[in-house]
């Protein structure tokens, strides 16, 4: 119960920065799926103290039902649940709502588990025991990601619609997954200069080390297949860049 004790010490701390609102201008609504009453209770109270609306579910079935309603700006998901493995819950939530932002909580610091959850579509991964201050900071960051305006980013003939997760390289609009969108946005923001794999891992997957997998290469291959194989160039020893 390290996290719970630490949480109570931090409940009175002032929020670090503005509290993002949902797209409708109301306080962001967050769903916590965790079967530990103490952790669920103190996290819910902390979220409410920050100005968010917080709901909770103590099992997978109820959690998936609530998450599928589409009323939540963020889902905080514990991987250990009594009725279903949390990774299966994550996959089910994102199957029902592919654009749902999910922050995973887990006792496991295993790199493979973290990479698997991020590949499934989780926006973030935090291990237990955790600092409540860090959890709240990650919540704010993920909510900022989820409230992107429907701006269109352009680079040459390529356009990227941030609101609809759609890209067009000249042959018509193409739907992207969230990870494909983030990867392409990182390349566009570099303006044609190379982006290293380490930089993509950090900005897209939230991983600040090399997990020893080819997740970046797989994402680039999918973008090339969708938008044209000449769109993204491989720069030997440096990474990837958009063709000028």
Could you walk me through the main structural features you see in this protein, from its secondary elements to its overall organization?
The protein has two domains: 145 residues, Rossmann fold (3-Layer(aba) Sandwich); 91 residues, Orthogonal Bundle (Arc Repressor Mutant, subunit A). 41% of the residues lie in helices and 18% in strands. The N terminus is likely disordered. It is α/β, with parallel strands linked by helices and 244 residues long. It is elongated and about 55 Å long. The N and C termini lie far apart (54 Å). The longest helix has 15 residues.
Short description:
Helix content is 41%, strand content 18%. The chain is an alpha/beta fold and 244 residues long. Helix 5 links the parallel strand 4 (102-106) and strand 5.
């Amino acid at each position: 119960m390290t996290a719970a004790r630490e949480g109570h010490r931090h409940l009175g701390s002032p929020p670090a920065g503005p509290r993002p609102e949902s797209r409708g201008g109301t306080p962001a609504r967050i769903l916590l799926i965790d079967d530990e009453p103490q952790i669920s209770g103190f996290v819910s109270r902390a979220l409410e103290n920050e100005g968010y609306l917080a709901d909770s579910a103590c099992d997978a079935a109820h959690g998936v039902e609530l998450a599928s309603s589409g009323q939540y700006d963020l889902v905080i998901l514990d991987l250990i649940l009594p009725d279903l493995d949390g990774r299966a819950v994550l996959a089910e939530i994102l199957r029902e709502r592919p654009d749902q932002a999910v922050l995973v909580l887990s006792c496991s610091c295993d790199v493979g588990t973290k990479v698997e959850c991020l590949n499934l579509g989780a926006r973030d991964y935090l291990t237990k025991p955790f600092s409540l201050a860090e959890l709240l900071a990650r919540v704010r960051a993920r909510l900022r990601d989820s409230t992107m305006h429907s701006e269109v980013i352009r680079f040459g003939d390529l356009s990227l619609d941030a609101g609809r997760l759609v890209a067009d390289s000249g042959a018509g609009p193409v739907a992207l997954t969230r990870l494909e969108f983030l990867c392409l946005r990182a390349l566009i923001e570099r303006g044609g200069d190379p982006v290293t794999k380490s930089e993509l891992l950090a900005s897209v997957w939230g991983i600040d080390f090399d997990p020893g997998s080819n997740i970046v290469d797989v994402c680039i291959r999918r973008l090339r297949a969708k938008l044209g194989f000449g769109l993204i160039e491989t720069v030997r020893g440096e990474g990837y860049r958009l063709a000028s």
